[in-house]
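Posting for a labmate who doesn't have an account.
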Amino acid sequence: MDADRQYHFANLVNELEAACAIYFDDIFFGESRRLLKHYLLDVFDRIDKSQEARALLQPVLANKNTFASIREFLRHHGKKHDAFVKAA
């Protein structure tokens, strides 16, 4: 796995974590909140369906609290979140 690719993917997922936290902080309202929700759901669906993305994600998962906002967002919207749980 390319270290540069891993680094950039980790940064992307950290930004997605921040976006999920922003979503729950009710910073956006109305149409902007709806757009954020649908964007995040689409990105997480693509990550879940991509073996490469899931492989890039595993080294970033430091512990059970890593990406807690992402898991909360996915649960809140009835989506599976197993890709964001560190494999045993």
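Reply:
Got it, the structure tokens are right above this. Residues 3-84 form one domain.
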